[in-house]
Amino acid sequence: MTARIIDGKAIAADLRARVAGEVARVKRDHGLTPGLAVVLVGNDPASEVYVRSKHKQAQAAGMGSFEHKLPADVAQDDLLALIAELNRDPAVHGILVQLPLPKTLHTETIINAIDPAKDVDGLHPNNAGRLAGGFAALAPCTPLGCIILSKSVHASLEGLNAIVIGRSNLVGRPLLQLLLNENATVTIAHSRSRELAKLCAQADLIYAAVGRPEMVRGDWIKPGATVIDVGINRLPTADGKTRLVGDVAFTEAAKVAGAITPVPGGVGQMTVACLLVNTLRAACAIAGLVKPAV
Ligand code: NDP
Asked: Is the minimum distance from the CB of 268 to ligand 1 under 6 angstroms?
């Protein structure tokens, strides 16, 4: 068997186009321009790339996009003051503080300061709790993207056996909740789980969100399963550069799986597209409009 490659790039482009259509509609019909504020502390090169991409894509979707760059040694109170200002700003509907933050800052305090209605990263405890309770919530973008990619293969996830490997607040835990909302049967694995290969062998859907290059092997996978690889790992190459690999041994896995996401070109593409979705949804909710069609 050769797996179908799930084209995250094309699916994300389609999603961005649908967001842009809805943004144009709410502007025209309601005079509302959804606005995204991204806060970058320090100059981590990878974070700078992500922030640029978020800014560019928000603008391309017709949204307001506001970038705030602060020095790595910014005082926590100054960052909190900026968040308070963004919470009050009527042009801002989504606030994202790019993580990781420098060690001098207390990430939890910073996240908790964001107005939950504007928490488009879905990390505020109000949103995490609402999601866990099965209530409407702003959910983290990467897991949202994983669900959309899964649904590009399976019209419904109901009754499917899913395994999520990784239990971070950013990916694994919210993905578990979103899968439950889809009525999948979910196992969540982590560094203390035993016999991971056996757990994977039961799964119709495998989500790898670990941060360990090519950990999930081809012979762990049930023939025909759908494999969504969240991992982004940079490996050095012989010529001194780096190459990206996922948490799944792609070549082996593609011989067994029914469908699989590549790295790059899979989940990564969806994360920013889903950030735009969350910003649009937050803007509509704050303005008291019905939920948009994306
Ligand atoms: P974290 O480091 O926060 O979490 C990793 C998880 O993997 C933990 O729950 C850990 O378990 C688990 N784990 C570690 N080793 C093993 C093991 N041997 N077997 C089973 N589970 C293990 O990472 P993130 O969730 O933030 O990210 C995971 C990966 O996804 C990374 O490669 C990251 O770069 C990528 N990523 C990609 C995004 C995208 O847009 N495509 C967005 C966000 C992340 P424990 O809890 O027990 O420590």
From this structure: yes
Residue 206 CA, ligand 1 centroid: distance in Å: 14
As annotated, the residues of the chain forming the CATH 3.40.50.10860 domain(s) are 30-117
pLDDT on residue 106:
98
Give the residue-averaged pLDDT of 92-103. Answer: 97
What is the tens place of the pLDDT at every residue in 206-230?
999 999 999 999 999 999 999 999 9
Residue 232 pLDDT > 90, yes or no?
yes
- Nearest 5°: phi and psi at 43? -135, 45
249-274 residue pLDDT tens: 999 999 999 999 999 999 999 999 99
Out of 188, 191, 199, mutate this one to test ligand 1's pocket (max ligand atoms within 8 Å of CB): namely 191
Provide CATH 3.40.50.720 ranges for the chain: 141-269
Give backbone dihedrals phi and psi of 249, rounded to 5 degrees, phi first: -75, 95
Take atom 16 of ligand 1 and give the residue whose Cα is closest.
191
181-211: pLDDT as tens digits? 999 999 999 999 999 999 999 999 999 999 9
Query: Homologous superfamily of 30-117 in CATH?
Result: Leucine Dehydrogenase, chain A, domain 1 (3.40.50.10860)
The first and second tokens of residue 234, run together, are: 């940079």
Q: Which fold has domain 141-269?
A: Rossmann fold (3.40.50)
**Cβ(54) – ligand 1 distance below 6 Å:** no
Distance CA 114, CA 86 (A): 9
What are the helix (H) ranges across the chain?
8-30, 45-60, 76-88, 107-113, 125-132, 141-151, 172-181, 196-201, 250-254, 267-286
144: amino acid identity, one letter: L
Confidence grade of residue 1 (pLDDT, cut at 50, 70, 90): low
Dist CA 120 CA 4 (whole Å): 31
